Amino acid sequence: MPLGNGDTARPRGQRVNAEVSGTPWLRGMGDPPLRGTTAPDGSSTEVTAAGREPGVAQGGEDGIPGGALQRAGQHEEALMSELSELVQKVVKSSSWWERHGVDISILACSFLQLPAGFLFLRSAQAIPFLAGVLTLGVVHHTLTVKGSHLASHNALTESKSWGKVWAIFFIELCSAFTAEQGTYNHVKIHHGYTNIIGLGDSSTWKLPFLNRYVYMFIAPLAVPILTPLVALDLLRNVEWKTALRTLCCMFLGFYCHYWLLLHVSGFQSPWSALLCMLLTRSLLAHPYIHVNIFQHIGLPMFAADRKPKRIHLMSLGVLNLPRNALLDWSFGHSLISCHVEHHLFPSLSDNMCLKIKPIVSQYLKQKKLPYNEDTYSSRLWLFLQRYEELMVHAPPITELVGVQ
């Protein structure tokens, strides 16, 4: 797939910076379908968790000797192990401030900006009022995107108990979603089966009945409305106690925002307050949707029983965008410029993903492995040009025979 600047179609498996050949991967080297992953509703999927690497079959589908497949698989596992050791050394030598403090401070600063945002909205003048909208919009996305994302990976604290508390706070109270379903869909499915057709292939973000311009530029405005509606539908899959807790948190989050607009910002009517809520909550909805599709869709997709090992799967199917001050603050490095690092080491905080970025990029390039990078404008142009292929039709399964 082409990844930028109107390039013509490349063989699947090639990279933006041309550091990966288009040579296909050997059939049979991917892990077979696995069982036992439990969903929040108690049901189980037919695939294994991401970290499990079952034994390799004795023979490949194309007559490849089992020994060759096993040696190749062992080599890939050795690569991931070596990279993990390098990253672990950096993590162990890092202070608490680097591991968690920086990102917690960003979230704390966002909370401290809330009073100013609501007070700015009291002004009848355009510039202060717009400053209030901008402030509340950035704060909202910092808490709901960055905060929820870090909380879902338990990257804000070393404690699992506190991690659960932060997940409920950021995902349910701030984002109006259910913590269990949000964590399961993102961590267990998307991260566990990145770019695996029917599982973690980002198909959640596809609305094939919309044309390219509506999807890319108009539909994102509906994200604040659709998010709680989807959450309500997903509550059917959780226990009643969890559903009740989620409903209470969602209501409390919405009502606090509404009450502050009426009694602090001075809105005179409920409809004007609700319109302001929609405006602030959709301020960065466009880049939010764009980032979620730019960094996976259009890259190689695999079948569950024919996928590379973890290090190849994550490096082939994930893409980094350039640094951006606004999006780095609101969404976090792990969703923008360090998305490859985040998928390889999902439990690390945004700041730690930024810190290990030089090590990961250098290691992958030294080993001739993919390290996908592209600009925001290039990806936007690509999706506008090839919207039908990437977002409407089912993506073809990549048949890789070898990664150089």
Automatic annotation (TrEMBL):
Transmembrane stretches, start-end: 213-235, 247-267
Keyword NAD attributed: no
Keywords: Fatty acid biosynthesis, Fatty acid metabolism, Lipid biosynthesis, Lipid metabolism, Membrane, Transmembrane, Transmembrane helix
Region annotation Disordered: where it falls in the sequence: 1-72
An example Gene Ontology molecular-function term: oxidoreductase activity, acting on paired donors, with oxidation of a pair of donors resulting in the reduction of molecular oxygen to two molecules of water
InterPro entries: FA_desaturase_dom, Fatty_acid_desaturase
Source species, domain of life: Eukaryota
Record carries keyword Membrane: yes
Domain Fatty acid desaturase: 129-373
GO CC, one annotated term: membrane
GO BP term, pick one: fatty acid biosynthetic process
Start-end of Gly residues biased regions: 57-66
The protein's name: FADS6 desaturase
Lineage: Eukaryota, Metazoa, Chordata, Craniata, Vertebrata
